[in-house]
Design a protein that fits this description.
mainly beta, globular, 40% strand, 4-stranded parallel beta sheet
C-alpha cells in the first residue's frame, strides 16, 4: 500500500504520481484529505500494471495539468490491466481532465477506471456521465 503525504505535486515534467506495478498485484491508496496535482504533464497515472493492481485516489484536486487523470501508459510494449477508482475529487482546467488510452493497442479500457463524486471542468467523451464542476 502506498501512502502519499498531504500536500502538492507541482510542476512535475511527466507525472505527479505514477502508480505502476510490473510483477505482482497490489493495492495502492492515495487517502490524503488534500492532495493537489498541478502543472504536471499528468497528475496521476495508472500505467503498466497487473490485473490485480488497484489504485484508489480520494479527495484529490487535479488542476492545470496536461492530463489530470490518466489510465494507460506511453510505452508501446506495456499493458495496463489494473483498475483505478477516483472518489470525492476534482479534475479541473487540464488540457484533458480524464484520458484513458493504452498505447499497446491504442484503445481505452473504460471499465478499468471508475469515479464516485468526481467532477470535471469539461465534458469527457470517454466518461460522459462525469458531472461538470459548477453545475
Amino acid at each position: 500500500m502506498l501512502f502519499l503525504p498531504t500536500g502538492k505535486f507541482e510542476a512535475c515534467f511527466h507525472e505527479g504520481a505514477r502508480t505502476v506495478e510490473q510483477w505482482h498485484g497490489c493495492k495502492r491508496t492515495i487517502p490524503s484529505p488534500a492532495v493537489t496535482f498541478s502543472n504536471c504533464g499528468q497528475g496521476l497515472e495508472l500505467g503498466f500494471s497487473s490485473p490485480n493492481h488497484n489504485v484508489i485516489a480520494t479527495n484529490c484536486l487535479f488542476l492545470y495539468n496536461g492530463v489530470g487523470l490518466r489510465y494507460g501508459d506511453n510505452y508501446e510494449w506495456s499493458e495496463a490491466n489494473g483498475k483505478i477508482l477516483v472518489r470525492n475529487s476534482f479534475s479541473l482546467y487540464n488540457d484533458r481532465d480524464v484520458w484513458n488510452m493504452v498505447r499497446m493497442n491504442w484503445a481505452p479500457k473504460l471499465g478499468n477506471m471508475a469515479f464516485e463524486n468526481t467532477r470535471v471542468s469539461e465534458l469527457c467523451p470517454q466518461y460522459p456521465g462525469l458531472p461538470l464542476y459548477g453545475e
